[in-house]
Hints:
The complex is a heterodimer. Chain A is mainly α. Chain A has 7 helices and no strands. Chain A is globular and about 55 Å long. Chain B contains 3 helices and no strands. Chain B has helices at about 5-25, 30-55, 55-85. At the A-B interface, helix 1, helix 2, helix 3, helix 4 and helix 6 of A face helix 1, helix 2 and helix 3 of B.
Amino acid sequence: MDNLLLYLFGATALVSAASMLVLRHPMRVALALIATMLSLAGVYALLGVHVIAIFQVLIYVGAVMVFMVYVIMLTNVRDRSFTLRFSSLLLPGIAAALVLAGLFARLAAGGLPAAATTSAAGRFGVQSFSVAFITQYWLHFELVSVLLVAAVVAALAVVKVSRGAHG
Amino acid sequence: MDSAPALVALGGGLFVLGLLGVIVRRNVLVMLMCMELMLNGVNLLLVVFAQRGDSIAGGALVLLVFVVAAAEIGIAIPIVLLLARRRHTMELDAYTELQG
């Protein structure tokens, strides 16, 4: 049953990711991406990695994509990119993607490393994962919060530059 | 049945689809969303390998990637909005003065 659900979520993720390439309006692309992210959250939950499943929904769907949807709704630009899907790079792009996919397939043909013997559910449970994350990776956590502050300052600077340019 | 090979294929497939979208689409916002799709593919691979290798390093890295993605969107969206306000277009071909 779990495996069936896993393949169902995986197939949904792949189909909606592929539909992102062919849908015309950015809002539909955003909805397809949200479907992909929610399916991936389901995959994470079925794998027993609950912390990451929760944060996938909270951060990606709840913050990043809501921001994206608001921006799409707030811009009233309608140009050629809303009717023409692909740029002139279509054929080179497909060639590059095929080469990359072949490379991945060749790498994956070497086989995966053997699975660990202990069950992942114990290590990746909410409590054990959180304790291990905060005790082992606290420095990375702090560094990434510095990065986030820098991003906020940069976004404010961009807005300020635009105010200066437009008076 | 072991589902790891299928999940690795799914992660690689999401990455390739995202890269294809970044290259071939015209709309800047759609290209940004395809970049997010690439990050999602990498995240899935990190989770699968972390679980298989029985190490939480991959899981910790996924949480850090979440923050980097949020920061990326937080900076990229104002830039896109500024460009759209200046040129009234979301088509990347209109911004040829950005080349190096």
